[in-house]
Amino acid sequence: MKHIFSGNPMDRGEALRRDEAWIAKAADRFDACFLPFNRLNVLLRGRELAWLNTAELEPLEPTLPPVFLGMLGDSPHFAVNIDRTDELPDGCQLVDCRTAAMQMALDETGIVAQARAQLDWHRRHRFCSVCGEESHMQRGGQVRICPSCDANHFPRTDPVAIMLVVDGDRCLLGQPKGPLVKTGMYSALAGFIDQGESIEEAVRREVMEEAGLKVGDVRYHSSQPWPFPSSLMIGCHAQATSTDINMDTEEMHDVRWVDREEMTRAMNGEPASIKAPGPIAIAHHLIASWLSGDVDPRFGG
Ligand SMILES: [Zn+2]
Predict the structure, then answer these.
(1) Is 60 exceeded by the pLDDT of residue 301?
(2) Angle at the Cα of 89 (from 85 to 90), degrees rounded to 5?
(3) Residue 22 resides in a domain
(4) Which CATH number do you get for residue 219?
(5) pLDDT > 80? residue 139
(6) I need a surface site. Which of 21, 85, 135, 217 has the fewest CB within 10 A?
(7) Which protein residues have their CB within 5 A of the ion that is ligand 1?
């Protein structure tokens, strides 16, 4: 299953990017394409990514060096920060990446995920975490090297376990404290996977922490890159082995069981006691998969 922010068609140019001389020249090629971002908002032309050539990019005052995303066809493609936003090309506008992703073709959302996560990482990791010296990017942005202590720093991806806990004909949804409360939206429970922890262990720990429930069988469903700032959502179904909720009141506003009928109404946008997450979120697909009976019938057996 391909989620929004996956499906990136770019050949990431693993061999090409190890040739620093090639990378240095690639950005000057006549066929080089640049995708501008400002404050992590992406430039769109209509609903499509606005790839610019060097001449179009120049007046926008790009912050160099650009990040090499990879090859599409025979052309090198880059993501780049721009400083000027008052001289955008005709028909172009800067759009926040969530909004952009909900409008565009799936393949393009994968490029947005890669570009946004990489630009944000470089912006926040200019200095070596070992010795404090300013580092510089190599391999087109796939690594930062410290000139003082030779440490290599790689862009990180943070794994998040997100799980739909089920108990027969009902599933468990939660609402964390914060902006979601006003919207009435409920979603699957989720949390960062700790160091030295398997996906299954993280699922069981998070469900115990947030809902006070025990979980037995855990089944992987699918995963979704989530570039806010650089997570990988690992979607699972989990079988409850206890059912009395004992919620973490510090983190959660509400945790509740939702039966199949109520869940179906919420997913169809019909009046219901909760609002379901939209298709941009992997939680939506975990719920849809459970409602449609796609969950492995041996699950929990
Ligand atoms: Zn260092």
Answers:
(1) no
(2) 120
(3) yes
(4) 3.90.79.10
(5) yes
(6) 21
(7) 128, 130-131, 133, 146, 148-149, 151
